[in-house]
Amino acid sequence: MFYHLFTWLKQQFNISGAGLFQFITFRAALSVILSLIISAVMGKRIIRYLQKKQIGETVRDLGLAGEQTKKGTPTMGGIIILLAILIPTLLLTNLTNIYVLLMITATIWLGAIGFIDDYIKVFKKNKEGLAGRFKILGQVVLGLIIGSTLYFNKNVVVQREVVGTPIRNERVIGEIIKKIDGKEKRYVNVKTPITTIPFVKDHEFNYAKLLPKSWEDYTYILYILIVIFIITAVSNGANITDGLDGLAAGVSAIIGICLAVFAYASGNLVFADYLNVMYIPNLGELSIFIAAFIGACIGFLWYNAYPAQVFMGDTGSLALGGIIGALAIIVRKEILIPIFCGVFFVENVSVMIQVAYFKYTKKRFGEGRRIFLMSPLHHHYQKLGYHESKIAVRFWIVSILCIVLSIITLKIR
Asked: pTM of this prediction?
């Protein structure tokens, strides 16, 4: 809203200072500050309200150290995160930008699914919450919306420098001449489902190449299925990771920094040209949303760090994971997800390995056996006697290493 207001004031009255809102870096900085303030101020009031309404966490007896002390701690604190993301986004971004609109949709959509799940657990006293099939259905529908929009919307393009003959499977929809470092260069807008492969010289990959040439007209089906899988997997990965005070929020904030770098680099023609990465017009606007996302996660940590005063619940964890998955797809870095979302990935895999091995050994030996003392992985370390705050901080450190490795892929090939 402020972006549109100050743009109008600049155009109509040429008011001094109004032009600041044209700078993405300025609005991104404001976004972080505003989200932190919202988290701190509104967070305290929301926690008091949740306590007043006795909206507390129900703790299952898993035999973990300190778990009973968490009983009654307010849950559904993900509302704080959602507000701290949405309010700065609505105030400071260009609301006609397709990428911003997609992320607002993803945030509200998954936040609503998580809220319903928490509501059933808390108010209906049903520990299972929303049935798993309905959660998956909601994630699939969101993936369908995002995948279809990215594939078919005319505003979602990649801009390429014209240096030779067109590449197969790419639809060229316009030519532009721009000056970079004083030199004129020709660019074309290309409508194609491509992604980035890390650590290789020719680092772009077109999903159409996965299909026979005669099936290329059906690439959109494959692409949408991939988007659905990624959003569902990352969303559930964040949900599984949310088991210790400050763990999911801290890891998500660190991942957000990585995605902000990717979005700004690919959304800025000069940086994209220097780094030799794909330039995605209008993507830079997403940096403001990501800044709000980072600020919201850090602000939430003020209350969620050990000992937690509030839990995010599925309202927060499902939304955080879905946001990260959607952002990775939009910035064309989804193949890097196992690296920069390394903690989510390992947590997910630990559960799958544990369940698969238990079923296999039960079928073969008559009794189920386990690889880990408990899954997800953070509970395994709790069983080994590590304090949960130490586990959370060490997982943050691992996440930092993962995002550093991911960011250097911009240059090392």
From this structure: 0.91
